[in-house]
Amino acid sequence: MAKLLIVEARFYGALNDMLLSGAQAVITAAGHEADVLTVPGALEVPGAIALAAETGQYDAFVAIGVVIRGETYHFEIVAGESARAIMALTMDGIAIGNGILTVENEAQALERADPGQKDKGGEAAKAALAMLDIARRFDR
Fold it and tell me: Catalytic site residues?
């Protein structure tokens, strides 16, 4: 059994509830357990994962959150930098499934977050578990 940490940027509560539900369902169905850590926004997710990874308490991580395009350049910074930082952590050998949605509007976010539709929270959990399997294959 693996222990995962779901790190959520809880800016849009109802959408995050759906992402979290999808991720938890996949982890539970696979026979694993997960803790949840909430951070202020998507930019804080990679830092929290890095801090938690240093403890050795978790085997894999699921990053979830929602970034919706607004009227300013802030969207590009948050979307790009959070993804870049998560990718850097994966290159360091940390098993992470990235379920941070970067969308144009709330309708797109709802479709992707809903476990009954695109279930991106569940997909992120599946990705984290797949990366954990790969890490274990190489004795990491």
Answer: 74
